[in-house]
Design brief:
It is built from 2 helices and 3 strands; from the N terminus they run E-H-E-H-E. With about 90 residues, it is an alpha/beta fold. The protein has a domain of about 60 residues. It has a 3-stranded parallel beta sheet with strand order 2-1-3, sandwiched between helices. Strand 1, helix 1 and strand 2 form a beta-alpha-beta unit. It is globular. The two termini are about 30 Å apart. The mean pLDDT is about 80.
Length: about 90
């Protein structure tokens, strides 16, 4: 019998950079791309409050993306036009 293990080992970053990360979130707009898993819905709710109340984020938007496919070009365009930061959620 052959068993194929589909999980990956832990990722080890060789270089960490904040080159494109905003230094301050106050007044920024954040968008979540949410694939609709129940755990991601809970994370978005929790993170929305934290981003606004603790980091001063001005606006939090959420766009649904397909559960088993890439986000549409229209959704990506909306995210690009309406947010400073995007968080892609694929929680399960």
């Amino acid at each position: 019998m052959r068993i194929v293990e589909p999980t990956a080992g832990a990722f080890r970053a060789t270089r960490v950079t904040a080159e494109f990360a905003p230094q301050d979130l106050r007044g920024k707009s954040v968008v979540f791309l949410n694939n609709g898993w129940q755990s991601m819905n809970k994370l978005v709710d929790e993170m929305r409050g934290t981003l606004v109340n603790e980091f001063g984020v001005a606006q939090v938007l959420e766009f649904e993306v397909p559960i088993a496919a890439a986000a549409s070009e229209a959704v990506l365009q909306q995210a690009t036009e309406n947010a400073d930061i995007a968080i892609v959620g694929l929680a399960n």
